[in-house]
Amino acid sequence: MTDFFAGIPKIAYEGPDSDNDFAYRHYDPDEIVMGKRMEEHLRFSVAYWHSFAWEGGDPFGGQTFQRPWFGDSMDHAKMKADAAFEMFRILGQPFFCFHDVDVRPEGETFAENTANLDRITDYFGPKMEETGTRLLWGTANLFSHRRYMAGAATNPDPDVFAFAAATIKSCMDATHKLGGQNYVLWGGREGYETLLNTDLKREADQAARMLSMVVDYKHKIGFEGTILIEPKPQEPTKHQYDYDVATVAGFLQRYGLDKDVKLNLEQGHAILAGHSFEHELAMAASLGMLGSIDMNRNDYQSGWDTDQFPNNVPEVALAYYEVLKMGGFETGGTNFDAKLRRQSLDAEDLILAHVGGMDVCARGLKAAAKMLEEGKLEAARTARYAGWESDEAKAMLGSSLDEIAARVEREQIVPQPKSGRQEILENLVMRYV
Q: Which annotated residues bind Mg(2+) 2 (predicted)?
């Protein structure tokens, strides 16, 4: 056991006027928003890797955190689980997420890794029952170990492909055993460093084949959750096969997997791809592929994945607007793929970072719901495209260039530009946030 969180109370909702640091000011899990409890809308999840496995390093410096569970034994893994579920009890969030290496010791062989994963997930079972915390998704870490330095599914060595496939199977089994609602694949090393030694077609074909095996295995074991891919554009490799929503959608359609796989989208990855978070969400929703989100933010002055906790309500509101507009999450949720700063050493830092992030998301959700319910933004969007509702405009999309050109000449069409009203709409959004 550990007393790491000793003295920290269970966090409760006290309202916006509270001056208690250890309280929710905006996140009231029982508040009804658009006919559903706030907890059911947001479906918050804690990321095991950043909160309990990360040691505080960055590209220019090593470990700054000292945690009693840091170590590579089963006793350390159990102590880490004790601390994790104590934090889950304090926060009261409904879900958590993990990679296999976050929760188990590393063995000498695949068999040892699998046995260790089985043991620790057995240890999770009673704790999940006691706290009521469920598994939003599980995944395999196929990027940290040196064996994956040239990728996992895309690796030029078939033995690495085989080891990765076996590891995915064991992690899917663990996720299924724990009642996980999704299974995520993130290709942190699925890319290249130089084209001089890379066969792009072969690597894409291998990645698709691995994903097909995942889909087949899902059905074989009766896993009812969603298979998710998490796009990322760079870092550590400078080009990845899952760059952004559009890239992944094209990949899935190319290999006939677009009906079986959805997307887990992260705010920080959207920024690294040169997009806004709401752009990626809107794109995925328009394709029917939005499954779940990782909530964090990047430092806009840094060109790498800083994974900070969210604190920008307007950004978060626009993100949840896209989620609500598509009908809300089904199996997905809001996972805090966020970590403390290297100088934030204390237990209370870890708790209060999540409290602040949950309050920011709650404020964003309520603003998004009000925008959607009042309908002014959608009314403006509808008005902008109103010309396309005429029978003549609709028929034009089934015409030829010759027919359209003849009509333009016959009717002497001279289009006049119309305002996009961007600033007016930005002012409108700011009324809600």
A: 266, 269, 305, 307
